[in-house]
Amino acid sequence: MPAPDLDERPMARAVELAARGLGTTSPNPVVGSVLVAPDGTVVGEGWHERAGGPHAEVNALAAAGDRARGATAYVTLEPCNHTGRTGPCAQALLRAGVARVVYAVPDPGAVEGGGADTLRAAGVEVLAGVLAPQAERVNEAWLVSARSGRPHVLWKFAATLDGRSAAADGTSRWISSAASREEVHDLRRRVDAVVAGSGTVLADDPHLTARAADGTPSGRQPLRVVLDRRGRVPAGARVLDDAAPTLVSRAGTPAELLAELRGRGVVSVLLEGGPTLAGAFLAAGLVDRVVAYVAPTLLGAGTAALAGTGVTTITDAIGLDVDDVSVVGGDVRVSGRPRR
Ligand code: AOF
Ligand code: ZN
């Protein structure tokens, strides 16, 4: 049996391939696959490119052809065992004569039991859990949604070093750097829906579209969602233009809004503002990831980035398990998952 670190390199490549599907596979997962011959040669690579299209394993098998026989298949998600829009990958791997299957994360969405049991029963050596944290991270939105039955929620905000999202006079444009703002447009391209409260729409009149540097809408557009319980959003608001579809929701609670979005097939949500809406989601335990862009500027007065969490004493502070701290265009980007 190969040493575990020998399995990590092809799995790392499979995770890289999976990431290529981010933004185009919803409501399906992102999945990557690599086929390696017994002599260590990579004989096929594939990833899931779009919902309804061939699964990662099938693409990798097609690339390998006859060379798949006797190979090890690396897959970031347990191979499927069901006939959905495409045939079961477990069977395709068996037909191709794959000798060993290494996968990272079990499939929580498996309809009729995962493919691992089927493969083992057919005499294939199966190993699970290789680079599970990395595979989990790239597919976080889909996995969290499949396990929880509601969309994954990413709260993104920009603030000054002293934690403010707007100055005392209400101005808030360009707190974060151009590079950070560009990243936010990439985030929007990758999610199914972008959510803002009516207060943010009234204060900032945002487009909530994914745009190129020149300001024109570019790439896949998420559903724009405005939580507007009191019907305050005016007809001329930019968020209602025809650049992308918009849902004005009257949902009474974050949970209700997420259920409504789930009903529309939404797997991933980007929560963009404002402070009170974010506070309500956090208080309800409905934020799965926080991404903060902290600019090296100070205000000393103005709107706090977050409000309404209900936290009044330090022992109740919402801790984050931070898995990334980077510098983006001079801002510090901190990303982590709220501890429950
Ligand atoms: C994918 N891509 O590469 C793998 C998936 O609707 P279907 O028939 O494409 O099936 C989707 C399910 O198949 C998905 O929820 C997951 O359980 C399993 N694996 N799905 O879209 C892939 N390997
Ligand atoms: Zn499959």
Automatic annotation (TrEMBL):
UniProt binding sites for Zn(2+): 55, 80, 89
Top-level taxon: Bacteria
EC number(s) on file: 3.5.4.26, 1.1.1.193
Sites where the protein binds substrate: 172, 188, 208, 211, 272
Keywords on record: Hydrolase, Metal-binding, Multifunctional enzyme, NADP, Oxidoreductase, Riboflavin biosynthesis, Zinc
Cofactor comment text: Binds 1 zinc ion.
A GO molecular-function descriptor: zinc ion binding
Pathway the protein contributes to: Cofactor biosynthesis; riboflavin biosynthesis; 5-amino-6-(D-ribitylamino)uracil from GTP: step 3/4; Cofactor biosynthesis; riboflavin biosynthesis; 5-amino-6-(D-ribitylamino)uracil from GTP: step 2/4
Active site residues according to the UniProt entry: 57 (proton donor)
Catalyses which reaction(s): 2,5-diamino-6-hydroxy-4-(5-phosphoribosylamino)-pyrimidine + H2O + H(+) = 5-amino-6-(5-phospho-D-ribosylamino)uracil + NH4(+); 5-amino-6-(5-phospho-D-ribitylamino)uracil + NADP(+) = 5-amino-6-(5-phospho-D-ribosylamino)uracil + NADPH + H(+)
Pfam families in the cross-refs: dCMP_cyt_deam_1, RibD_C
UniProt similarity note: In the C-terminal section; belongs to the HTP reductase family.
PANTHER family: 2,5-DIAMINO-6-RIBOSYLAMINO-4(3H)-PYRIMIDINONE 5'-PHOSPHATE REDUCTASE, DIHYDROFOLATE REDUCTASE FAMILY PROTEIN (AFU_ORTHOLOGUE AFUA_8G06820)
Protein name (database record): Riboflavin biosynthesis protein RibD
Source species: Kineococcus aurantiacus
